[in-house]
Amino acid sequence: MHPREGWTEDRRGLITRRGFLKQSAGAAVLLGSAGSLLDACGNASPSAELTSGGIPLPRPSNPVTWPTFKDNPAIKSGLPPEQNATLRIFNWVAYLNPQCMKDFGKKYNCQVQLTTFENIDDAIAKLRSGQLNFDIFFPTIDYMGPLVEAKLIQPLNHSYIPNIAQAWPDFKNPFYDGKWQYTVPYTIYTTGIAWRKDHVPENPYAMKNPWAMPWQAKYKGKVAILDDSRESISLGLMKNGIFDLNTTNPSQIAAAGRTLEDLAHLTNVHIDNNDYTEVPSGQIWIHHAWSGDMAAAPQYMPKGVPVDVVGYWFPPDGRGPVGNDTITVLRSAPNPVLAHHFLNYMLDLPNVLTNISYNGYMQPLTEITPQRLVKEKLLPPSLMSTAVLPSFFRRGVMELQVPAATRNLWSQTWLQVKSA
Questions:
Q1: Which domain holds residue 273?
Q2: Are residues 164 and 194 in the same domain?
Q3: How many domains does the chain have?
Q4: 8 Å CB contact between 20 and 206
Q5: 202-252: per-residue pLDDT in tens?
Q6: Ramachandran region of residue 239, left (φ > 0), alpha (ψ -120 to 50) or beta?
Q7: What share of the chain in percent tops pLDDT 90?
């Protein structure tokens, strides 16, 4: 479900990005110091599917503004940042530039401590235990319901976050968090098809159904799909002409699974999340891929091989999988004022450019355009297709929270595909 699912610190250690610091190994690293519910449901139709807690599942066609609670209020305005503090961040592995944390610590005369996770379910389970004491958490949008219902995150006081003005208008009232009561946007990405142009003459831009590009027997052993139940079953759905990536229809899910099994038998398909290394190296010629991973292709090209041989296709009309992450302040945050300032800091253009230079993933600021990324030498011109456009979030399709029974069905189908 997520580009950083299953990443480890050791794996990230292979990556170097434009001279910035590598991610340090270990779960807690100090970077920087002093010196150096149901008003929400009023937006939902009576027939809307609900979470286990009775909260509607947000959809672009069914936006939700979450409730606030008297015992979980936003902080007051005008408070000074906490002094002699350590801001504690809980985030995916390799998803936040250490330089950003170091610079924030210097600016606010505090320390910043990072703890990482590899799986969102495990992360939320740890937060629910109450044994971890963090200020900031980076969840995916499909977990908004459980986080609000359990009161794990606190409403935001917008007076501390003026840099929201730099964000795309879509994220000032997102369908998954109306009026951005609990979240600010973080990274954005698409899921498409990457290929090595020097080995694969077919051009997906000229194909009737580019989602079918991996289904070619002549590339046996050189085709890979992402090791992710939602992403890859979605590929099977789209190959079959179905673009409801949150379908609860067992027949459609089963058919997508059979389509992927056909791919396995046809190409001896690889199943992994190594798109960012395997395509540049030429180990794989066609890979179902994430945009941010392929934006990093220049870092992995063999010596003497130009990055121009790597292609990334996403539908020019935006009708493909899009996603975004968020940043939240935890209800139990020891330093909620500093946490709000950090959210604001990560919406400021210079800091966002620094962050992109490290993880490759765009953030939805008005000034972050494909042309700007090329100008800043953060993206080669030949891979401008990896850039995410505002229109994609209006025309694209998103993998969102589904009922538990459907989620189990997707998982079971994926296990069958992997054993094919």
A1: 189-320+395-418
A2: no
A3: 2
A4: no
A5: 999 999 999 999 999 999 999 999 998 999 999 999 999 999 999 999 999
A6: alpha
A7: 78
Contact between 57 and 402 under an 8 Å Cβ cutoff? The reply is: yes
Please say if the pLDDT value at position 98 is more than 60: yes
Q: Are 182 and 147 in contact (CB under 8 A)?
A: yes
Domain CATH for 70 = 3.40.190.10
Compute the distance between CA of residue 244 and CA of residue 198 in angstroms, rounded to an integer. Answer: 34
Asked, for residue 106, whether it belongs to a domain, the answer is: yes
DSSP 210: G
Q: Are 368 and 362 in contact (CB under 8 A)?
A: yes
pTM to 2 decimals?
0.87
Is residue 275 within 8 Å of residue 293, measured between CB atoms?
yes
- In this structure, is residue 256 part of a structural domain? yes
- Cα dist. 249→253, 411, 417 in Å? 6, 14, 18
- Domain identity same for 358 and 380: yes
DSSP state of 329: E
Do 357 and 313 lie in one domain? The reply is no
110 and 135 in a single domain? The answer is yes
